[in-house]
Amino acid sequence: MKRTDRLFFSLLRAGLWDTMPDPALFGDSVDWEALYETANRQTLLGFVGDGIALQVAHPDIPASAKAPVDIRKKFLVQVVKAERRNEKLNRFIVRFNRIFTEAGITPVIVKGQGVALAYRQPMHRQSGDIDYLLTPEDYARARDIIAPLASEVEPEGTDRLHYNCTIDGITVELHGTDAPRDHRSGPEKRFDEFTVRHYAGEKLLWDLEGEKIPLMDHHFSVIYILEHFHHHMMTSGVGLRQICDWMMYIAAHLDALDEAALEADLRDLSLLRPWKVYAALAVSYLGMPAEKMPLYDPSYARYNARVWRIIAKTGNFGKYERKRPSLSVPRLLRKIKSYAYILKQSARLLPIFPSETVRTLVRRTKTGFQHINEF
Question: Where are the alpha helices (DSSP H) in 147-302?
Answer without folding.
Answer: 186-199, 218-235, 240-252, 259-268, 272-286
